[in-house]
Amino acid sequence: MWNLKRPSLTSIRSDLDALFPEGTGAGISDDDKLKVLELYDEYKEAMGEPNPVWKTKLLSNESRDLLLTAYGEVSDKGELSLLRAALKKGAKKCPYCGFGEIRDLDHHLPKKHYKCFSVFALNLVPSCSKCNGHKPRTPPSAREKYHIHAYLDDVSDFNFLVADIEISDGALSVIFSIEKRKGMSNELTNRLRQHLTDFKLNERYIAQITNYLESQETGLDDNFRLGGASEVRAYLLRTADSIARTNGANDWRGALVVALAESDEFCDGGFYEVLGFT
Ligand SMILES: [Zn+2]
User: How many angstroms does the Cα of residue 104 sit away from the middle of ligand 1?
Assistant: First the structure.
């Protein structure tokens, strides 16, 4: 969740050539392709933060529209199907929610506003359809609302995702939030919080939490029989370590399991009621 390995950029020129073959007189000229590559370099230098000058710089409106239309070729049967497949392969789960199946490529900078990056690999983030659909279509004007760039903003040094749980009448409620840690700026904290809001993660995690806890049923039961609350807690902490090793520090399951381990009520048999065993 949050970060993905950067995609290879070795084919960005050949991708443009495949979309707009040389010598045909149609599409984007060789000169324009160099300008597109120059804009790609600026994107990399700016770490993908939106810069409104890119909407008009270097390229004509006609060339921009051609690039936007060319995104249709980044499809399963299009000219750039291999690019699509390679990008989708770079993520096991959606980096925005941490559970959705990869179906779409999200334009980090929306393609209708930043047409010049419509087929740029670094601007194409594999995501689930729900997250892609929830993403605001207009880039925010305030920096602290910018989304984290899954390839370029490495946030793995901080353990910022926390879960607050409450058990009431046997029902578990969980709220995820972003905790500002030492070394994190206010801006970064707010940008991370924007993800929770825009992707409606707290609402969408409810069903996932139920499924996840059901998958832990045997482990919880076995450990409780073995040694009561302390064995359940130890089991949950081992599980949290394993999740962090596999999925990084800020996986929603990891945050959930840490919070459950801290709950005396849950560990001391309260999980039976939460799981509907009463
Ligand atoms: Zn998602």
Answer: 10
3-state helix, strand, coil in the chain (%, to 5): 50, 10, 40
Please report the DSSP string for 134-162 in residue order.
HS-SS--SSGGGPPPPTTT---TT---EE
The pLDDT confidence band at residue 197, using thresholds 50, 70 and 90, is very high
Rounded distance from Cα 197 to ligand 1 centre (Å): 13
Label residue 27 by pLDDT band (50, 70, 90). confident
Q: Which residues, 6+ apart, have CB-to-CB distance to 85 below 8 Å?
A: 76
HSE at residue 113, side-chain half, CA atoms within 13 A, is 15
How many whole angstroms separate alpha carbon 83 and alpha carbon 61? 25
Mean pLDDT, residues 165-180:
96
**pLDDT for residue 278:** 65
What global pTM score does this model have? 0.94
Kindly give the distance from the C-alpha atom of residue 30 to the centroid of ligand 1, in angstroms, as a whole number: 37
115: its two tokens: 């047409």
Ligand 1 mean position to 208 CA, how many Å?
Answer: 12
218 Cα–ligand 1 center, Å: 28
Q: Alpha-carbon distance 210 to 199, whole Å?
A: 19
Dist. CA 195 → ligand 1 center (Å): 11
Q: State the Cα angle at 56 between 136 and 71, rounded to 5°.
A: 55
